[in-house]
Amino acid sequence: MSIVTHNWGVGLVLGAIFANIVMLYGIKSLTKYTRAMLLFTPIVSTTIGMVIFTGVVMMAAKHLDFTIENIAMILFAIILIYLEIKRSRALSHINKKDPDAFKNFKAYAIKIFLWEIFVTLSISFWMWL
Q1: pLDDT class for 1, splitting at 50, 70, 90?
Q2: pTM of the model
Q3: Are 23 and 32 in contact (CB under 8 A)?
Q4: Distance (Å, rounded) from C-alpha 101 to C-alpha 97?
Q5: pLDDT higher for 55 or 83?
Q6: What CA–CA distance (Å, rounded) separates 41 from 63?
């Protein structure tokens, strides 16, 4: 049951990333996007936290057996957290007076989202086989 919960958490992380991409291209105003991200960022953080929590519970159930897969998952979780911090810091440091700032942020954010998708799918691929 724990692997199923972990798997659903990974699906929710992917869903949150895709929802972020939809909002990134759906919202045309920087102010509205920033407001939406203030509400949506905790949801993304919670989904990442859910995956980390279920992974830790499964590791505890296996008596903290640090296999290569577990170490890789820990590293990938740290990478996901790092990418989210980079994206939200870039959003908070946007020059709101620059007319091209939101367009430049979109290009930057889509690169981060694509990396997040790659990281999530690459570590989850073996679990889904």
Answers
A1: low
A2: 0.86
A3: no
A4: 8
A5: 83
A6: 33
Rg of the chain over Cα atoms, rounded to whole angstroms, equals 16
- Residue 64 per-residue DSSP state: S
Q: Can you tell me the mean pLDDT for 51-59?
A: 87
Q: How many CB atoms lie within 10 A of CB 108?
A: 15
Report how far residue 98's alpha carbon sits from residue 28's, in angstroms, rounded to the nearest whole number.
15
Q: 3-class DSSP state for residue 71?
A: helix
Nearest to 69 by CA among 124, 115, 117: 124
User: Residue 44 in contact with residue 20, Cβ under 8 Å?
Assistant: yes
Return the residue matching tokens 């989850």: 124
Contacts with 9 (C-beta within 8 Å, 6 or more apart), sequence order? 47, 50, 51, 54
Whose tokens are 């869903």? That residue is 15
Alpha carbon distances (Å) from 127 to 9, 10, 123: 13, 10, 8
